[in-house]
Amino acid sequence: MDNRAAIREFLASRRARITPEQAGLPAYGGNRRVKGLRREEVAMLAGMSIDYYVRLERGNLAGASDTVLEGLARALQLDDAERAHLFDLARAAEPTPARSRKAAPATVPASVQLVLDAVNDAPAWVRNARHDMLAANRMARALYSPLLADPRRPANSARFVYLDPASHDFFQDWERAADDIAAMLRSEAGRNPHDKLLIELIGELSTRSEDFRTRWAAHNVRFHRTGLKKLRHPVVGDLDLTFEAMEFPAHPGLTFLAYVAPVGSPTADSLKLLASWAATTEVPQH
To answer: Is the pLDDT of residue 26 over 60?
Structure first.
């Protein structure tokens, strides 16, 4: 990953989205040639010199202190995910990073699979930061049968969304799913820019999908910890699922996801049908 280019494009894109009015600044004249804030306006808001800000936006975050980064985050009105991404980019810019991150894990311990198998009434699965499905219980394999229909393993949600036409039927809001996946991969690229398999995945998606290229160029980042997942399963139909995503402190890089629905809701009834279908139809994970 080109860290300097990522810094340059991230800062420029965040600056371009903020108007002077949103930043609490007077907008003199009606013919601003710059979309969003000017560099000198960001520098003033962040409490730094224009020369120093220009250096940062050219991609040189090496040596920037936490105080400088916090000031920059406030000036650009970054949310929590964007702030974390800025700090990740700054760490990657250091000539000798304090500690290099391990590549995303490719397998799960047997104990994690046992935890998944103990969850009987809800789809539950584990992914890494490349969005490889590494382990799943029977309900999750049934739920994600369209994803697992591709024999390539490990099954990968990003490839499914961008490269498999079946994803447009599976995700009721495909645009949102595509936005989320690109934003999460962009976040991971900032955290772990030297993950070879991640670089290969992003290269493959960029080569084969214009939808991905457009979203990747936007430099949006996002946390994906809880929310609503609206799916259309080929057997049980529409599902409005609440999901929770949790990390394993003992197994860095693994994320546990579980999908549930309120008792008595149409989706809860559909999950019962899914469980019946799963009991008679084995969807291979490996």
So the answer is: yes
CATH 3.30.450.180 domain locations along the chain: 110-280
Residue found under tokens 């290969």: 200
Residues paired with 243 in a beta bridge = 227, 259
With tokens 């800062």, the residue in question is: 11
| CA–CA distance, 79 with 88 (Å, rounded to integer) | 14
Q: pLDDT by residue (tens digit) across 90-129?
A: 999 988 655 556 667 888 999 999 999 999 999 999 999 9
Per-residue 3-state assignment (H helix, E strand, C coil) for 156-186: EHHHHHHHCCHHHHHECCHHHHHHHHHHHHH
The model's pTM: 0.91
CATH (residue range 110-280): 3.30.450.180
Output the CA torsion 45→47→51→52 (10° steps).
-110
Fold designation for 3-93: 434 Repressor (Amino-terminal Domain) (1.10.260)
CA neighbor of 10 nearest in space, from 66, 71, 67, 56 = 56
